[in-house]
Amino acid sequence: MADRKAAAFFDFDRTLFKRECARVGVDHLRRMRRLRVVPTLRALCANQLYKRHLLNEGPMLGVVLRLYAGLDSAELDEAGPRIYEREIKAGLATNVLERMEGHRRDGHLLVIVSAAIPYLVEPAARDLRVSHLLCTRMEVGVDGRFTGRARGPICAGDTKRVLVEKLAAEVGIDLERSFAYGNHQSDLAMLSAVGHPAAVNPTGKLREIALARGWPIIEFE
């Protein structure tokens, strides 16, 4: 339909942000002396498996979420903006931000689609003035503390495509006219959902797929 909008969907970790939010979060917990030995060891092992493409992003993040079990949700929400200013903002990829601003000028809806958890990615979404944020929500118990589990699906892999298609249906987005940016093969489902996908500083596997399909490849500057 002619009145449907185009959108630009951006992965966050190693796409808009040159690092990984999970690492930033772990560093924050370490500085606050909130890391527990067993969950931390499990998270480190999961991260190594993920880097070697032996574990998908969703299960890896599920292990990371357990680091937050028992922590006060309001305390982390309050810390989020400070962490963004200190640890994340300077690490945003300038040339990818320029792409985002180009889409804004063209009147496209801007959407961040990330496996990252809210206190780490919501301040960025506000600062970048995106239209929508799709991310992994954390379950909070009746005591106001995190349970260490996700509330709903982890925003990774095929779930990214499901959430993108759901948003498109809700707000009237024409996916064929839309754009998507991701760095990892786990972003493939989201990238394949739009008419104009692009790989950003891609992993070897995603680079192979992008080259085979003729997708643009954007390197960090």
Question: What are its keywords?
Answer:
single chain; Rossmann fold; alpha/beta; 221 residues; 6-stranded parallel sheet
Q: Care to describe what's here?
A:
By secondary structure, the chain is an alpha/beta fold. It has a single domain (7-218), classed as Rossmann fold. Helices cover 46% and strands 14% of the residues. The protein has helices at residues 21-31, 37-51, 57-65, 73-88, 94-105, 118-127, 158-171, 188-192, 204-213, and strands at 7-10, 109-113, 132-134, 138-140, 146-150, 179-182, 196-200, 217-218. The strands form two sheets. The chain has a six-stranded parallel beta sheet with strand order 3-2-1-6-7-8, with helices on both faces. Strand 7, helix 9 (204-213) and strand 8 (217-218) form a beta-alpha-beta unit. Helix 2 (37-51) packs antiparallel against helix 3 and helix 4 crosses helix 6 (118-127). The radius of gyration is 17 Å and the shape is globular. 41% of the residues are buried.
- In the CATH hierarchy, what is the architecture at level 2? 3-Layer(aba) Sandwich
Instruction: Supply the helix-strand structural class.
Output: alpha/beta
Determine the CATH superfamily: HAD superfamily/HAD-like
Number of helical stretches of at least 4 residues = 9
Could you tell me the strand content as a percent range? 5-15%
Q: Main beta sheet: strand number and arrangement?
A: 6 strands, parallel
Q: Could you give the distance between the termini?
A: 37 Å
In the residues, how many domains can be counted? 1
Instruction: List how many beta strands DSSP finds.
Output: 8
Write down the secondary-structure element order: EHHHHHEHEEEHEHEHE
CATH class: Alpha Beta
Radius of gyration: 17 Å
